[in-house]
Amino acid sequence: MKALITGVAGFAGSHLAEYLFAHTDLDVWGLDIRFGHNVAHLDRLRQVQADLNDAASMAHLIDQVRPDYVFHLAARATPSLSWQTPWITIHDNLHGQFNLLEALVNTSSEARVLVIGSGDEYGLIQPQDLPVKENVPLRPNNPYAVSKAAQDLLGFQYYASHGLPVVRSRAFNHIGPRQSDAFVSASFARQIAEAEAGLREPVIRVGNLSAQRDFTDVRDIVRGYWLILKDGVPGQVYNLGSERAIAIEQLLDMLLAQSRVRIRIEIDPDRLRPSDVPILVSDCRKARERTGWQPLIPIEQSLTDVLDYWRARVRAS
Question: Among residues 36, 77, 79, 188, which one has the fewest Cβ atoms lying within 10 Å of its Cβ?
């Protein structure tokens, strides 16, 4: 049995490949535009370079691999950066998925497909919507969220129109080693690691600290991806999250408690988003009841691992 992971060299993609090698007998193929240190240790990974925006190359790839499982993780995945390039974010995320699904349909594939959505799709959550179930209306309030909602709906359309066994996920904030410092916990950890190494003044620059988010370790999330794709119902969508809201300030405090130097905090206006939801927390009963999934790694361990990862990166630079 073959699995294809798009975006395998990214944050979640590399952890997913690790999980599949450790816990399944799947022959894992990984697609990306380029490969780097995130997957350098995965000797068994079958690497394929391809551009999702190139329909011909995607058709050739699917015909070559003939996967049984497809995890579609490749995307422009940074909400904050999507404000700078809104159309590119929406175009690339939707067009790439369209080419992938078309290639699967045109080869008469029966592969089970996981379309990776995001808790950001829910957007402007009302107090009565909390905790957020899958039937809450989508009100995306940034370009990235719009692109993920469109991917979500496109995945359902290919299930409804073509019978392609597509399952959809909406994972809330996930953290862990290898995450880009464009995301909040990695940004804090990198700044702390650089301050400890004397590479920057002992100041950590932050955005909105009052927002509350639902944080889960990426290694728990990718386990959820596998269980949802394997055991989920085609056409359905499943939330993945910790079901616990934590303020960004609390997250920062937990990281600063591990710092080896005293660090002061400064608000950076450039880190404030034009639109921010005060609180976002998931209800994951649907995934739990269908697959038995639940997060296992405590946030304290996740943050320690994130900080140790950035300390190692700083030492190696």
Answer: 36
